[in-house]
Amino acid sequence: MNYSLKQIPERPSKPRDVGFTMAMDKGLSNREVEDFIDGSGEYVDIVKLGWATSYVTNNLKDKLAIYKDAGIPVYFGGTLFEAFVIRDQFDDYRKLLDKYDLPFAEVSDGSIELPHDIKCEYIRKLSEQVTVLSEVGSKDEDKIIPPYQWISLMQAELDAGAWKVIGESREAGNVGLFRSSGEVRSGLVQEILTKIPFEKIIWEAPQKSQQVYFIKLIGANVNLGNIAPNEVIPLETIRLGLRGDTFHHFLNKL
Amino acid sequence: MNYSLKQIPERPSKPRDVGFTMAMDKGLSNREVEDFIDGSGEYVDIVKLGWATSYVTNNLKDKLAIYKDAGIPVYFGGTLFEAFVIRDQFDDYRKLLDKYDLPFAEVSDGSIELPHDIKCEYIRKLSEQVTVLSEVGSKDEDKIIPPYQWISLMQAELDAGAWKVIGESREAGNVGLFRSSGEVRSGLVQEILTKIPFEKIIWEAPQKSQQVYFIKLIGANVNLGNIAPNEVIPLETIRLGLRGDTFHHFLNKL
Amino acid sequence: MNYSLKQIPERPSKPRDVGFTMAMDKGLSNREVEDFIDGSGEYVDIVKLGWATSYVTNNLKDKLAIYKDAGIPVYFGGTLFEAFVIRDQFDDYRKLLDKYDLPFAEVSDGSIELPHDIKCEYIRKLSEQVTVLSEVGSKDEDKIIPPYQWISLMQAELDAGAWKVIGESREAGNVGLFRSSGEVRSGLVQEILTKIPFEKIIWEAPQKSQQVYFIKLIGANVNLGNIAPNEVIPLETIRLGLRGDTFHHFLNKL
């Protein structure tokens, strides 16, 4: 930190298991990646190359090398996994992870119908190869999953070998955990937390109000994802009670 | 492409006449232009320097050179044309295009009242000097043009020498083709397409939902414009059926 | 300017006392700061390091040096002042300003309750050390201050030594001067202007519609703040009547 302030919540240093920030790169150029790492890298635990953007970026190999040199693991968005699966190209996907030497992969079913035992089978298989993040929740805003089912899906995916489970929201933060307005499904979140430890969950929370909600509910060290590169520093200040939204939240509680 | 996936819509390579992406630069610095080209240049067919931003950017000559070296043509937004016309400085505008050696120009009447035969006269004159894009639709949200009139305006402007016509939306995507909410005037669009070939139209569609609408209606190779630099890669994935929004659209249809 | 247009409002050159643009840096990397200055520096009069982002940016010293070399003064957001005050660390705050050799400071009470005579006392003390900007208005959207009170608060803070007063809006532009929708409290603004000279006020106006409102009401040379780095060039065109929104506003009035 650049100067000293009292009563600031403690944050673990990297590699972090909690208080984890997953940022989304949806097509940065190599120099923009360098800028991002230079400005915010200390607060970024993992980077997702959003959905299937890795298919079209013209700089994939170099981009992965830049993140690797900075000690920031990278994974392909779950939509890419689904794009391979729906084309019956799962073996190609496994080879792809090897080719690019990726340490993480996401298993999701946001855009495809996947019987849950099959999804868990994918998690099991990929776990032998990489660390798996699995995502629960549909990108279809009409597909409402009741809380008890979120819990059993999450538990089964952790049992199948997922390192952490991700609560879906899309880039814009308007499905899955959230209403179409972006408002948090608060009852859902609280019920999930009665059964699944908060350390095992990454909440996708691209909007500030969503980040504030989770930090107030769970604390500075909640795991949050889908953070835009230029929102990583702002998020860090919210975690520390140094932005208006959480200014009073941690005072006299530390 | 960085790896191989089946059932991906075919995209023509540059120079493209369809499947054209027009991006908007509203004041990038030179190095930001380099970053933009490095990350997304392959998917950018033409760049508009938004409205009259070229008047104030401190780096115009160098900026134009950087785009030129990358083989990406640049043109000044239509509002600049109108700013010259309303000041009775059209000859200065023609000299300006020559001075900066610009290959394209836009003729529009989004902010000024221009009798349509006069507008077509400007198109005719400028066509002798550069390739002309002409824009139909007002920036004034109270000025509703009925579909049959959009069609006759577009046809007359093509007849006068416009290479393609642009459907107006503003940077924010909330007038012209769109309701103030950003929703597409779908009946208008479909009626236009019964008379004007889709290759001759560039739809300004800055919002994701608008891009998805046009890609689903017309296909991967619709011409789209007013795309923010950091949305060019995401748009390309939508064209290819590799983002949730169009994930199923092209499957089993190719 | 890159070319000549008639009937363009005159803008003073730097250092400006009016027509002042305050931009907000909420965590740019050093190279992004260089890009920002290269592209837009000519139109930036002062930069605020948003709220307490300066606590976490890993490049503070270098960042300040880059802005200084470009002749652009920098100050810490008012929330940081408040974070020191509420922790009873005001002396540390004064030392911090010295340590980083900052020429400006902001005194605000957007997130804390501060009796107004105490706030003015802080303004007086800091005025001995730096140039003070003081901010009026709460970040709490339920805290409505009536116009006569805005005026007396502003006047007292100017009397206490503030160089200019800032009308609060947050980064998103939805409290203080604005309704939660972002709409300007127009009666409030106009009543303030009957008593406080416009040169003494910086209106935080991050949204385009808010910038347009103030420019139409007060003129090209109104002081505006909380401008995102990539909106500085667009704002300059609005000031000059070169964007659709103010296209007709200055014509035939100059």
What does this structure look like?
Three copies of one chain form a homotrimer. Chain A is an alpha/beta fold and 254 residues long. The first copy, chain A, has a single domain (21-246), classed as TIM Barrel (Alpha-Beta Barrel), CATH 3.20.20. The first copy, chain A, has helices at 30-40, 60-69, 78-86, 90-99, 116-127, 147-159, 186-195, 208-218, 232-239; strands spanning 21-25, 46-49, 74-76, 104-107, 131-136, 164-167, 201-204, 224-227. An eight-stranded parallel sheet of chain A has the order 3-2-1-8-7-6-5-4. In chain A, helix 1 links the parallel strand 1 (21-25) and strand 2 (46-49). The radius of gyration of chain A is 18 Å and the shape is globular. At the A-B interface, helix 1, helix 3 and helix 4 of A face helix 1 and helix 9 of B.
Topology:
Three copies of one chain form a homotrimer.
Chain A: E1 21-25, H1 30-40, E2 46-49, H2 60-69, E3 74-76, H3 78-86, H4 90-99, E4 104-107, H5 116-127, E5 131-136, H6 147-159, E6 164-167, H7 186-195, E7 201-204, H8 208-218, E8 224-227, H9 232-239
Parallel strand pairs in A: 1-2, 1-8, 2-3, 4-5, 5-6, 6-7, 7-8
Helix pairs in contact in A: 1-2, 6-7
